[in-house]
Amino acid sequence: MGVLDGKTSLVTGASRGIGRAIAMALAEAGSDVALNYFTSREPAEAAADKIRAMGRRAEIYKANVSNPDENDEMVAKLLDDFGPVQVVVNNAGITRDKSFVKMDRSMWQEVLDVNLTGPAMIIHRLIKPMIETGGGRIVNITSIVGQMGNFGQANYAAAKGGLISLTKTLAREFARKNVTVNAVAPGFIETDMMADVPESVLDQVRNVTPIGRLGKPEEVAAAVVFLASPAASFITGEVLGVNGGMYM
Ligand code: NAP
Predict the structure, then answer these.
(1) What mean pLDDT value characterizes the chain?
(2) What is the pLDDT of residue 19?
(3) pLDDT, tens digit, for every residue of 119-152?
(4) Under a CB-based contact definition with an 8 Å cutoff, are residues 172 and 210 in contact?
(5) Which residues of 115-128 are buried (b: 16+ CB within 10 A; e: fewer)?
(6) What are phi and psi of 107, to 5 degrees?
(7) How many Cα atoms sit within 13 Å of 104 on the Cβ side?
(8) Choosing from 37, 61, 156, 247, which is the catalytic residue?
(9) Structural domain boundaries of the chain?
(10) C-beta 37 within 6 A of ligand 1
(11) What strands lie across the sheet with 136-141, from one edge to the other?
(12) Suppose 4 and one of 24, 30, 162, 223 were both cysteines; which one would form an S-S bond, judging by CB atoms 3.0 to 4.6 Å apart?
């Protein structure tokens, strides 16, 4: 028996990295999983196959989460396939780093669109059927950068900080509808997103992280499963840091 038996979860950006680990962990906890991807079709298929091998249902959905039409199409298909979802994990995210004076408008807009407007649109489309069928859990993947700020990431910090504020507001709006809304704020986690970060910077990160290392996607996924589980029923509007103590 898993804590999420009988539930259906949507995970955006589930083809790689943290999102893939979240999809696996939700399935291990008993949930069927709808996996959103944007460009990495084969990895998304492979993740879905792995979930099916666990005996859960899994389907993949291509959509750029910042595109309203693609979101509409994805949500229509997934409601058709699974019915209402009980767990929504807004994980898809991008960075486009530059010091603020060199950051152009398109870098700003793209990061805000994917990391903040995308999650808002997806919640907007899924919340009604979720409420009408008894409620559910929303978990937004923000970042330590949304809590602390970071040099060269004004766009990303603004988007992730905005996602924290969105989380708290929706937690208030949906609290009496049996929907909790929480955020998980990873520190520096070993994924492709870290691939362009120079080793010297990662060394500095290790130095200022009390636990002394980067995190693993599975460590973020465990926090998401907790927030989606019955054990977290009285937690809403919370930002759960998974950062090795880098921000406390
Ligand atoms: P990653 O390895 O770069 O993977 C990003 C995922 O997001 C991929 O599955 C990608 O899908 C998807 N994605 C990107 N743009 C998309 C779009 N427009 N529409 C739909 N999907 C899109 O990133 P990660 O490190 O796992 O990060 C996952 C989340 O954690 C992000 O929100 C990130 O900001 C946050 N985070 C990461 C860290 C870290 O240290 N890694 C720290 C704090 C927060 P495709 O490959 O299919 O295009």
Answers:
(1) 97
(2) 98
(3) 999 999 999 999 999 999 999 999 999 999 999 9
(4) no
(5) bbbbbebbbebbbe
(6) -65, -40
(7) 1
(8) 156
(9) 8-238
(10) yes
(11) 58-62, 32-37, 8-11, 87-90, 136-141, 179-186, 239-242
(12) 30
Contact 93 CB / ligand 1 (< 6 Å): yes
Residue 116 Cα, ligand 1 centroid: separation in angstroms?
13
DSSP label of 117: I
Tell me, in angstroms, the distance from the centre of ligand 1 to residue 193's CA: 7
CATH class for domain 8-238? alpha beta
Q: Name the residue at shortest CA distance from atom 18 of ligand 1.
A: 64
Distance set, CA 236 to CA 15, 86, 94, 125 (Å):
27, 15, 25, 20
- How many angstroms separate the alpha carbon of residue 181 from the centre of ligand 1? 20
CB of 122 closer than 6 angstroms to any ligand 1 atom: no
Residue closest via CA to ligand 1's atom 36 equals 143
Name the CA dihedral angle for 70, 159, 161, 171, rounded to a multiple of 10 degrees. Answer: -20
Segment holding 60, helix H or strand E: strand 58-62
At residue 82 the predicted structure's pLDDT band, cuts being 50, 70 and 90, is: very high
Probe residue for ligand 1, chosen from 191, 214, 219 as the CB with the greatest number of ligand atoms within 8 Å? 191
Q: Rounded CA gap, 53 and 214, in Å?
A: 30
Count of alpha carbons within 13 angstroms of residue 229, beta-carbon side: 16
